[in-house]
Amino acid sequence: MNDNDGSISRRRLLGAVGTAGAASVAGCGFQAPTAEEESPAESPTERVARLDRYPRILVGSVGDLGDGDVETFEYPLEGTRNFLTRIEGEAWDGVGSDGDIVAYNGLCTHMGCSVEGLVDPGQEMAGPCSCHYTTFDLSKGGMVVSGAATTDLPQVRLDVEDGDIYATGIDGLVYGYRNNLRDGTPIEAAAEE
Amino acid sequence: MAADNPNTSEVPIPPTDAERSTRSCRYCIVGCGYEVYKWPVGEEGGPSADENALGIDYPAGYGEWPSPNMHEIIKENGREYHVLFKPDTEYPVNESGSHSVRGGTQAQSLYSPNNEDYDDRLKQPQIRIGGDLVTVDWDTAIEAWARATEIATENGENPNGYGQKLYFYQFIENTFAGTKLCYDVIGSPNWGGHNRPALTPECPGLVNAGLAEWSYAYEDAAEADTIVLAGADPKENQDVIFSRWIDEQGDADIVFIDPRKKFTANYAENNGGIHLQVNEATDPILLNAIARHIVDQGWHDEEFIEEWVMADRETIDEEGWYQEELGMTPEEYYDLLDDPRYAPENAAETTGVPAEDIREAAELIAQPNDEETNTLFMLEKGLIWGWSHENTGAMANLTLITGSVGRPGTGITRAGGHQEGFWTNGAEGDVIAESSTQTFDGETVEGATVAPNTVERIRDGEISHWHVIGNDPARQSYATQDLRNAMRERTSGAQPQTADIDEIERAFRERIESGGMVVTHQELYANTTTQYADIVLPATAVESGEGGDYHRWNGERRFRQYQGFMEGPSGAKEDWEIFAMMGRRLGADDMDWEDSREIFNLIAEEYPGAGGDHSLEGIAPAAEANDMTPAEYMETVDEGVQQPIYEENGEVQGTPRVHAPDGEREVMDHRFHTSTGEAILQRVDWDRVVDPDDGTTIGDVYEQLSPGEDEIWVTNGRLQHLWQNMYTHQRLEYIQKRFPQNILQLHPNDAAERGIEAGDLVEIVNDDVFNIHGENTEGSFTAVAYVVDEDDAAQGQSVSEGLAYTYWLYPDQVNNDVNPAYLDPANPNPGYKYGKGRIRRLGESEVKGEMSFKPMNIAPE
Ligand code: SF4
Ligand code: FES
Question: Which of A174, B209, B329, B337 is the most exposed, fewest CB within 10 Å of its CB?
Answer without folding.
Answer: B329
